[in-house]
Design a protein that fits this description.
Elements (H helix, E strand, L loop, with lengths): L2 E5 L2 E4 L4 E8 L7 E7 L6 E8 L2 E5 L7 E6 L4 E6 L8 E8 L5 H11 L3 E2 L3 E6 L1
Parallel strand pairs: 2-11
Antiparallel strand pairs: 1-3, 3-8, 4-5, 4-9, 5-6, 7-8, 9-10, 9-11
Length: about 130
Amino acid sequence: EAQLVESGGGLVQAGGSLRLACVVSGLTFDDWTIGWFRQAPGKEREGVACMRLDPSGTYYIASVKGRFTISIDRAKNTAYLQMNNLKPEDTAVYSCAVTTYPAPIDELLEEWNLSGGGYWGQGTRVTVSS
């Protein structure tokens, strides 16, 4: 069974940066799509970004496009979410997850978020102060 462990969260001022890591064991990224999700206090969980290697593709929600970058280090079996120019509205618990759901990359996040399928990590908290 796969296990996902996130790290890298913390407290940062608005405009700052953080890099989240998701170490995956029990599977490789060759056959899976990696996604990052977040849940802000009092709000529903939302998908933030996802990445697939074969066929290759990435997708970001509009509010983070240009500020966040998802990447994979296959040698370390680790996925990352580089977050730049952070805003107070980015404050949330961030979780990584993997799935084999075959939807097109630009349609996957919303369906995946609703189904909650695949394997999920426990989350790491990001707090952005104004």
